[in-house]
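Researcher: Good morning. I'm working through a list of sequences from a screen, and I'd like to move beyond sequence-only analysis. For each chain I'm collecting a predicted structure so we can compare shapes side by side. This is the next one on the list. No need for commentary yet; just the structure.
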Amino acid sequence: MRFFLFLLLSLCCFAAGAWPIKPVRIVVAYPPGGGIDVLARQLAEKLTPAWGQAVVVENRPGANTIVATDAVAKSAPDGHTVLMTTDATFSINPHLYAKLSYDAQRDFTPVTMLVLLHQLLVAHPAAPFNDLKGLIEAAKAKPGSINYASYGSGSQPHLAGEMFKNKAGIELVHVPYKGISLAVPAVIAGEVQLTFAGIATSMPQIKSGRIKAIAIGGAARSPLLPQVPTFAELGYPEVETHAWFGLFVPAGSPAAAITRIHEDTTKILGEPDFRQKQLVEKGYEVVGSSPQEFVIYLKNDSESRRRAVRISGAKAE
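Model: Good morning. Structure tokens for this chain:
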């Protein structure tokens, strides 16, 4: 009897807009230990007392984020299952795969873009160039003599590298590695001359002289590496090296849940100590967009990546 009374009370609260009424899952589309997983766990720790319910991080890596995305798309649209993923899911995969088990626009409601990351083009210290102009000149002098690493066909470094080739009119050799963690070590070891990498990954290696920074994506230079020019200021604004982390819920989730998730996560992002130590100092650009702003951004980002996929000729592996 008590169970049915509790169930009835829960349903009444939910109908009245109360949320959450049970534990919340943040499904991360990547393995434990990476930047997105760390941020998810930091948010979960702070959201648990704020929501009065356990907030649990569940890692569901696999198939270029498709495993996690499909699982969340099929979950109950009650706001208690949240997908935390990157631009690969919604901006790149729809143009990379002939068929997906989810529809990016139909099956999800964007909640907020948390952070934006602009990656660096880095090179082996012995590479015969120190800037983008020198790289282009070296590539034109010996076509096909310079190679760059990515973590697979259609990955962000692959799309950025092929767009750069296209706009600069040069030939670079694409060398795909099986994993995001292998590209920078490959440059350090001299297996390849170039790759694109995040600031957090690159900073220690740049400071130690094991790699050198050539250029960075984005509209403005990073305050962490103010000496490194952007592709845009060097005349190549089409070279997108960015990635982002964002939150999504299944389509049809209650407006009360979407509003609460957005407001409380962006409040955490705005905490001065958290913002500086956990985000800015790691090279993240804090965003915290509204659901409406995120929808507009996603439309433009998807179109930009569609062009990059077409130019690259990338196909799902």
